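Q: Protein A?
A:
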Amino acid sequence: MNSDQLFKDRARVLDEDLAGRASTAGADALLMQVVSLERVPARRRLLLSPGRALLGVAAAAAAVAVIAPAMLSDSTISIAPQPSTSVSVTAEPTAQQILLAAAVAVEKAPASGDYWRTATINQWMLTDPTRSYVLEGRRSAEVWLAKRPDLPSWRMRQDLGVKPATPRDEAAWRAAGAPTTWRYPKDMKTENLFSVPSRPLEAAAGERTGERLHWKTVGDLAGKSLTWKEMPAIPGEPETLRSYLEERIGRLELAGSGMDVEEARAYILIRNCVDIISTLPASPETRASAYRVLASLPGIRAEEEMTDPLGRPGQVLSYQEEIEPGVFSKVQLVVDPGTGLLLAEVRTNTTKLANGRQAELRLSTSYQAIGWTNERPEPPTHRN
């Protein structure tokens, strides 16, 4: 079976199963055949060993960036789970089945519009400067990338405030005098933290701000900026997309990163696929192929269904990355296979407080909207 026929058969059986027209046994048999045959070409394989990966710059920056509130419109794709169209190939779907089902679904997404829009809520946890309790903060962001140069592109951001993460942390916070501002020393060690803020944290929400973006650039891939003119060059077929990404990743200088180079490349490949699915204005075919590349990679496993930080149920895929030498963070991707949309990305780590208590820290990005729209942004009065 050649690759073209393989992907056609997979799309057909999953389309039929999503519509309830294929028998579970028949769908399962063909899907298992597809999964068993769909393998990485022998020319090169990037392996992701348990617990080893390169911490992306975006993941670290997300812990301290100031971001802004989402404004949903009826014409933008709003991310809400669709349980009636979820795959029922097996009682406990595998990672490959979840990813392949998402690939089929996302191919049906709108392929054009005046703006590519993403709306996110970022939630993070961090110890206070004395490591006595855990704080939880929320930020929101909305990015409108205009496809035409005559339209303005915008990023709107807002810090939504900081508070103690749990009742136990609230008690410790009150014992410390219930501060409303936290300043972190410049030389504070991360010590299992995702990052340390470079500016004071505030309990109160900040002002919503808007920033005009340069039209030419639409994002980054493998450490280099992408422009609108370069977007059509991103392949829409799984094998060619993987080769394209591996070639870009191969240009990166990773020898001095302190990580095994092949393992670092393996994580970057996962990261790039997630970026294509969630933030870059790629075609539906390219986004579907990114899911299919993920389905072919080792190190990604399925977990039980869970609700994301915004309370939406989804299928969970997980892997691990190293955030510091010998310190590992669990990464969970919450996906709705019925729409093919990424609901959230959640990183979990543990740290030790000053009193010896082990505390769980989470860093998450929840996607409220991803996709094309003909609506127009509504920038705030305060603009940078």
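Q: Protein B?
A:
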Amino acid sequence: MIIWLNGASGVGKTTVANELLDLLPGSVLYDPELVGAGLRAMLPKERLAEVDDLTDLPSWRRMVVDTAAALLTEVPGPLVAPMTLLDQAHRDEIFGGLAARRIPVQHFLLHVDETFLRARIDQRASVEGEAVRGRCLANLPRYDAALAWLSADTHPLEASRLTPRQAATLLAEAARRGDGTRQIVQTPAPRAETLAAGVLLFDDQDRVLLVDPTYKPGWEFPGGVVEAGEPPARAAVREVAEELGLRLTHDLPLLVVDWEPPRPGHYGGLRLLFDGGRLDADRLREVLLPGAELRDWRFVDEEEATTLLSPGRLARLRGALRARAEGRPLNLEAGVPVGV
């Protein structure tokens, strides 16, 4: 179990976390900042200069998950992690990785009004130096922008007028009740190349339906990994039924076969996209998202898709749209058509 204590920089998460250790038997402080410190010492300064925050490093997010899993082989837990996490895609990647390792997460938000927060930042700066004040204040706009999704994803604690011990006592009680528990689908991490099948579903404006998973970053197409011995088209139909509650009864024309090359941390494999056709208003009323797996869905045109999809998925979408327009499937390698 991990108790993730989120909040603005300077709000006092680590102080409250240390108080919480006294109230939860067996708990251990897990500070992801130490993972960042290690990366800061090892990575070239040129690479560090490319990111605004260490949480923007894919290696940090992966190591946070791996380190937590390793720690829980040594101690019973829970791990108490005081760490600001403001990017929802980063949250999905980390919490999804923990879920894949069967590590439950309780997500709490330590919130104080800005007047109190600035006072706490001033107090901390008086001890640790002015550089701390600058970092904390620079973080405030990102925190304000993230409050909408944080409020929906966490169990919030208003701590403006609470001492660290009072806040920890309330958090301990909430943790024992199971508050803040995130229900995330436990998708095992791939151990080899995979075959995955997705479906493009369209509305009457020929916009394509995308879904927002809770267990990994970014938007994608409905679909998933083909199970051993399962026909890919049948897998695509199964995934649409599981993810959206839609039963596709017609044959699905193949649009693209895309070979995704391996890269560090990813095995790659074959990615198939099928044409699921248009959905009318009656079918759209049937959509029912599984909360542990998908957060949202929407129809997007190609321009909006560029802001939601990863480069690889976007290239695959463009290939599929071309195949649909030409009435024939396309063979892609890393999103680039071959043999045409």
